[in-house]
UniProtKB/TrEMBL annotation:
Stated name of the protein: histidine kinase
Entries under InterPro entries matching the protein: HATPase_C_sf, HATPase_dom, His_kinase_dom, Sig_transdc_His_kin-like_C
Key word ATP-binding present: yes
Organism of origin: Variovorax paradoxus B4
Keywords from the UniProt entry: ATP-binding, Kinase, Nucleotide-binding, Transferase, Two-component regulatory system
SMART domains cross-referenced by the UniProt entry: HATPase_c
Keyword field contains Kinase: yes
């Protein structure tokens, strides 16, 4: 089990994100001119590269804890139920999704869109660990150690990670899959979101026994327990 620290060199990540966005803006201008001339390339691989570059730039901002967040009170059961419905339409049908929210679970105080994006990144990792299908549990519960926080837990029945891999899993650009310029930012962005929101991310995993990604996030003030 490892609590994932967020790398302190956030300035470098923000600089890289800004440079990447500038490059992507130039690419969009070029693609638009090709589109005006009737070239089919505008909707092909170059456009796909731009979209993936946008996702990488957003992940760098999240990792650097520099997202523009608008936290609000968010009831856990309706949110996770709606998110599970989204997954039902997008995940491999061989993956069973279950939602379990503890009774009297407090409301969250987070940015809903940023939380959804963080959960999507977490679930994509889980899906990759279950190539033959499996079980995915979304759980909400009190944090037993800190009443100011609650825990959102995404648990899969996949291949799991060794302790060495789990320790590095939230490091920027770390991946156990075939490397590409766009891979390895998912969990580092999730960890950055959790930290910027006033919480943290923790990974629990064992080879052959699946993985749990736990997000400890602020509870809304009016729903905290004693």
């Amino acid at each position: 089990m490892a609590t994932q620290p967020v790398d302190p060199d956030h300035g470098l990540a923000m600089g890289a994100s800004a440079a990447l966005r500038e490059l992507l803006a130039s690419m969009r201008t070029l693609l638009a001119s090709r589109d005006d001339s009737g070239s089919s390339e505008a909707s092909g691989r170059p456009a796909q590269v731009v979209r993936r570059g946008d996702a990488l730039a957003a992940a760098l901002v999240a990792y650097a804890q520099c997202q523009t967040l608008a936290p609000e009170s968010l009831e856990v059961l309706p949110f996770l139920s709606s998110f599970a419905n989204l997954l039902w339409h997008t995940l491999d049908r061989r993956i069973t999704v279950t939602v379990d929210v503890e009774r009297d679970c407090p409301a969250l105080f987070v940015d809903a869109a940023a939380l959804e994006e963080a959960l999507i990144q977490t679930v994509l990792n889980a899906q990759a660990a279950m190539p033959q299908g499996g079980k995915l549990m979304l759980r909400g519960a009190h944090d037993r150690q800190d009443s100011r926080l609650l825990c959102l837990d995404v648990t899969d029945s996949g291949t799991g990670m060794s302790p060495a891999v789990a320790e590095k899993a939230a490091s920027p650009f770390f991946t156990t899959k075939e490397a590409s310029p766009f891979s390895g930012m998912g969990l580092s962005a999730v960890a950055g979101f959790a930290a910027q929101s006033g919480g943290r991310m923790r990974i629990s995993s064992a080879v052959g026994r699946g993985t749990s990604i736990r997000l400890f996030l602020p509870a809304a003030l009016d729903s905290r327990r004693g």
